């Protein structure tokens, strides 16, 4: 029962206790695997690396003027596996930061980050834990909204509380 739909989406990540906020609006492909399981794929903008110029803060316009932004050779792909019981989010890119989150309500999931290395060898993953306080998926027959509230941990140190929100526009 593999069917797909092209939909505009808004994906946001907000920290409730740190100055972290990110929003991506893009067209995504929503694949329906079965009655309650979906895969969502979208391309995201590249992570921009830039340098401050003349003691001014680094902005996209400043770095573009100075030629410091390098576009990746392949797009960064964000892939979400969504069900009412768990969500897995994977980001992959060419020689860029990659990560994989696993969320299931009331469970300590594993979060892995892979940083770009200077050599062609595979880099080791940074492993963290996340505790999913709340996971909700709304909408029938296709999901319209996903919300995951979680805490990120390394050992016994909490690295913040976060809200991941996905809105699928129909």
Mean model confidence by pLDDT: 82
**Strand order of the biggest β-sheet:** 1-2-3-4-5-6-7-8-9-10
Topology-level CATH name: Lipocalin
**Corresponding CATH architecture:** Beta Barrel
Distance between the termini: 20 Å
- How would you classify the quaternary structure? single chain
CATH superfamily: Calycin beta-barrel core domain
Task: List how many beta strands DSSP finds.
Answer: 10
Radius of gyration: 17 Å
**What fraction of residues sit in β-strands?**
over 45%
Which stretches are poorly predicted, pLDDT < 50 over at least 5 residues? 50-69
Biggest sheet architecture: 10 strands, antiparallel, barrel
The CATH class name reads Mainly Beta
Write down the secondary-structure element order.
EEEHEEEEEEE
Taken together, the total number of domains comes to: 1
By DSSP (H or I, 4+ residues per run), the number of helices equals 1
Helical content (DSSP H or I, runs of 4+): under 10%
């Amino acid at each position: 029962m593999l069917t797909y739909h092209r939909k505009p989406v808004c994906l946001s990540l907000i920290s409730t206790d740190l100055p972290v906020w990110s929003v991506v609006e893009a067209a995504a492909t929503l694949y329906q695997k079965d009655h309650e399981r979906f895969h969502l794929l979208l391309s995201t903008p590249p992570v921009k690396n830039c340098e401050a110029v003349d003691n001014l803060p680094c902005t996209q316009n400043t770095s573009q003027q100075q030629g410091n932004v390098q576009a990746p050779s392949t797009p960064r792909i964000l892939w979400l596996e969504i069900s009412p019981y768990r969500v897995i989010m994977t980001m992959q890119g060419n020689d860029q930061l990659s990560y994989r989150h696993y969320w299931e309500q009331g469970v300590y999931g594993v979060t892995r980050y892979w940083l770009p290395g200077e050599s062609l060898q595979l880099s080791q993953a940074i492993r963290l834990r996340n505790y999913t306080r709340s996971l909700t998926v709304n909408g029938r027959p296709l999901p319209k909204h996903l919300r995951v509230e979680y805490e990120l941990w390394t050992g016994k140190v909490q690295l913040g509380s976060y809200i991941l929100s996905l809105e699928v526009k129909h």
